[in-house]
Amino acid sequence: MKPWPFVVVLVGLVLGGTVYILVREPESGASTRSGRELPRLPLDRVAAPLPPRFAGPLPSRVEGFHHELEQGPPLSYVRARLLEGDQEMGTKFLSALRQAAASARSLDELWGTHGVVLGLGDHGDDKPPDDMNFLKGLHDEGVPCAWLRERLADTAREPPLLTELLWRKLVRCPGSETTALFAREDAPITWVLAHHSLFDSPRFTPALESAVRRILNQSREELFVTAMYRLSRKQEPVAQGLREELWRRASGEIRAEWERREAMRDEFARQWEEEQAWKCPPIPNPPGRVDALTVGRCLEKWVASSWTATARFAMSASRSPELQGASEPLATVRNFSSLAEMKAWAREWKLVPAATPTMEDEPRSLSLSSIMRQAQRAFVINLETRDFPRRHDELLVTLAWKVRPALAGVVFEQLPPKTLPADFFQPPSSDEYTLRAYADGQRFSVKARNSHSLEDIGAVVGLLNQVLESRGGPHRFAVLDSQVSEVQVVFGPEAALREADARGLWRLGDGREVLVQAEARIEKNLRRLLGEVPF
Hints:
This protein has about 525 residues and is α+β, with helices and mostly antiparallel strands.
């Protein structure tokens, strides 16, 4: 027997294994490359106490609200103190809120003034408020939930507008204590259903049962379809009985609306099943035979069949411009032998807390940022806002709260520009915001751009990082590279953030450049709508 076939096979196996070894970084050590440095902003730092206005009175009337606000503490500071459980501030704010509720002519007035302390966002009669416009996700985004629950324990003597405001804001608060409050007979039915949809579905809770019974007793036909939808997948006999009673009492118009929604849901389910049944091709080699959509759909299936073969594909795909949209999960496959190993690496480098629960299958995404979002160490932030002035101070308070206690005791302030931002297609305004942080007897200040529609995420992250550095800790915030107004911000030791960048697990960006790119994209889309540039 000639030895050549055996030698060829042996060489092939060795080279294949060598390729896999070469594409992987050391399991726990640092990579041989250095990641991008975090940007540093020009900073003014002086010794300074907290200004007297922070101890001043809160506005007690809707009329003249903004004039009174200039004499007292920023509303972001009030929210921060409520989050920290400051009883004195809680009493002070409740007194001002009661007086304002008595003078307000509508919930809109109360919501648009004092309501921001309990969370940002618009409200509508047909949907729950999006209380924090910054961070995406169905969890507490810096809403003072404990304070809200305490206030709603007894609302008998409160002005009706105040009670309505508190219930609507409570919709964004998770937890069993909140669910128990929504089980009360005086809880507004609309917001009981909204809270159940956000946090308690698919469970059949006492709060949901109580709400549906009140809908029937009060003949609230406008809520029949919503109630039937909440009960439609419940198997409990009581839930099925309530749904049948809703159907029996429903008018022909309501039944037709329900059947229309059921048909839409069935169609969505059919499309989802078709997508799940989509047949993935074999692991491609070379990568030129596959597009980014296929990689996104099939990568998890490929690693389940052979992580080693997928790693060889991931190495060659890293040089393919067409697959840059899947670069983060592909980097995970290149660097680690399993998703569990990547999670262990993230814990070792302190990118996720050691106490984070181990979850075998969730989140399914192979990207590091998804694992960190689960652990509340990465955040998706929508920078677009209609408000002027922009609420950079609210974003500062929210991010500081999410990573507590690293920034405990830090007080934030925003000095807005005197002029409105420039219109679209005009040069940016030279009149800037000043963002300040008071910490440990020092005042830190940075300038923020007066963008026509976006928060200056670079200034926000830069200010937070300067305070973190002054306190001697290793942790920093970082903005991931993006060209759109929805960005990811991650939080962890600076060395770990750069190590992940060096391994290709993400691409660190500069928040100032992200802002410019997002503005350019918005303007380009507007020009397309105006017919000035082709789609």
